[in-house]
Specification:
Dihydrolipoamide Transferase, PSBD, 4 domains, about 25% strand, elongated, seven-stranded mixed β-sheet, alpha+beta, lipoyl, OB fold (Dihydrolipoamide Acetyltransferase, E2P), four-stranded antiparallel β-sheet, tricarboxylic acid cycle, about 25% helix
């Protein structure tokens, strides 16, 4: 009986792919997990492996065909006894089954990493080959550009083999390990058997006769560019559709200085200091933070305006009602809910601070998804309180507390950090008196909170001591004029100095 080979899950929001390359021909003998073909989506390349050993009887979807999820790609039948001897891998699988009493092996796969995230780095393995694991027990942790992703065991058994060691970069849907579910530990695999990290193909590989993706060939023909003008990033230097798009757009971009380094090169280190330094590779999260902050400086016309706010009214209101608030709502009344409410109130009057630039268009948002910057041991992340303008004080406090805890534990999902329209950053918790926050692109505004400090101020012609806080609004001057930025900050100040304005919508 033939076994069907179908299109696997392609990831969130991806519904179809193009058959890029078949690595087997009808009649070829295949082993379990042999790579049969490669599919190309608009984001990633997906490998399709043989679900069983046998002979590839038929290819239903030839190269260049667009297929949907679960579509039939081909069929595998039983290998003929008269056929030439099976490959070494087929033989080994047969011997392993004979010696292990048909041991059932379960694949541990890279889970969905979220929209726009196509790869991750294996940061830590918590189990070793040969160790017993329970279902849903954490096996390893993956690190993406934004969050850490835990990989649980799909079934109880023994971790038979780790296919991808720590430090390896893997794509969504890649195999990480094998679990034996018969309760017997498989023999530890030799180190050489571990799949190497998918690194850039060496120059020698690029010179081989490699078949480029059909979609890439079509794109090159339409753009009128030669194969030599495109650098392939696929397997063995194959040119993918996105490689062609990069090559086409490259001439239109402003020419960058040749071989410009990401940072100033280090000066030679004296021999006496060489042994007292430690070099640690930047985490993917830290690399992303560095890249995005630099992009914000290079792209936006960033400007900062400052003001100060007397926190007496907010502190008095908080002290008066904090016990009743916590008793009724089960959460402490902090300062962040006041600032979120004040900002959502001001954004209604100055909507361009809540907008973003898309090409030559300005996108105005009739909602407020408030990003709240949170410092974690691994770096700065910005979870988003969605529809903050429609939430009560208690709902805001609960959501911020929940997101902050998940951020510090590295449990945030990609969805919880996407779609923010404005951001609040509180450097005051670390003692900052004044700073200029950097925009969180593509947003056009970010409010910086700072330390509350008793200072002498003039009130009614008298010098009095009041708890004061400096506020800083950084904004994109391409879309927000100085008048709008100052008006926004003044409205925030007025709302905090007289919270009754929030109730009266003034």
């Amino acid at each position: 009986m033939a076994t069907e080979v179908r299109v696997p899950s392609l990831g969130e929001s991806v519904s179809e792919a193009t058959v890029a390359t078949w690595f087997k021909k009808p009649g070829d003998i295949v082993a379990v997990d042999d790579m049969l073909c490669e599919l190309e989506t608009d984001k990633v390349t997906v490998e399709v492996h043989a679900p069983v050993a046998g002979r590839l009887d038929e290819i239903v979807a030839p190269e260049g065909t667009t297929v949907g999820v679960a579509a039939l790609l081909g069929q595998i039948g039983a290998a003929d006894a008269s056929a030439a001897g099976p490959s070494d891998k087929v033989q080994k699988v047969a011997e392993a089954k004979a010696g292990a009493g048909e041991r059932k092996m379960i694949d541990v796969m890279v889970p969905a990493l979220g929209e726009s995230v196509s790869e991750a780095t294996v940061s830590t393995w918590f189990k070793k080959p040969g160790e017993t694991v329970a279902q849903d027990e954490m096996l390893c942790e993956l690190e993406t550009d934004k969050v850490s992703v835990e990989v649980p065991a799909p079934a109880a058994g023994v971790l038979a083999e780790i296919l991808v060691p720590e430090g390896t970069t893997v794509a969504a849907g890649a195999r990480l390990a094998l679990i034996s579910t018969d309760g017997a530990a498989a023999a530890p695999a030799p180190a050489a058997k571990a799949e190497p990290a998918p690194e850039a193909a060496p120059a020698a590989a690029a010179s081989k006769d490699v078949e480029d993706a059909p979609a890439a060939k079509k794109a090159m023909a339409e753009a009128g560019i030669s194969r030599d003008a495109v650098t392939g990033t696929g397997r063995d230097g194959r040119v993918m559709k996105e490689d062609v798009a990069k090559a086409v757009s490259a001439p239109a971009a402003a020419p960058a200085p040749a071989a410009a380094p990401a940072s100033m090169p280090r000066q030679p280190v004296p021999a006496d200091d060489a042994g007292r330094e430690e070099r640690v590779k930047m985490t993917r999260l830290r690399q992303t933070i560095a890249r995005r902050l630099k992009e914000a400086q290079n792209t936006a016309a960033m400007l900062t305006t400052y003001n100060e706010v007397d926190m007496s009214a907010v502190m008095g209101l908080r002290n008066e009602y904090k016990d009743m608030f916590e008793k009724k709502h089960g959460v402490k009344l902090g300062f962040m809910s006041f600032f979120v409410k004040a900002c959502t109130h001001a954004l209604k009057e100055v909507p361009e601070v809540n907008a973003e630039i898309d090409g030559t268009d300005v996108v105005y948002k009739n909602y407020v998804h408030m990003g709240v910057a949170v410092g974690t041991p691994s770096g700065l992340v910005v979870p988003v309180v969605r529809d903050a303008d429609q939430m009560s004080f208690s709902a805001i406090e609960k959501k911020i507390g929940e997101l902050g805890l998940r951020a510090r534990d590295g449990k945030l999902s990609m969805a919880e950090m996407q779609g923010g329209s404005f951001t609040i950053s509180n450097g005051g918790v670390y003692g900052s008196l004044m700073s200029s926050p950097i925009l969180n692109p593509p947003q056009s505004g970010i409010l910086g909170m700072h330390k509350i400090q008793d200072r002498p101020v003039v009130v009614g012609g008298q010098i009095v001591i009041r708890p004061m806080m400096y506020l800083a609004l950084s904004y994109d001057h391409r879309i927000v004029d100085g008048k709008g930025a100052v008006t926004f900050l003044v409205r925030v100040k007025e709302a905090l100095e007289d919270p009754r304005r929030l109730l009266m919508d003034l």
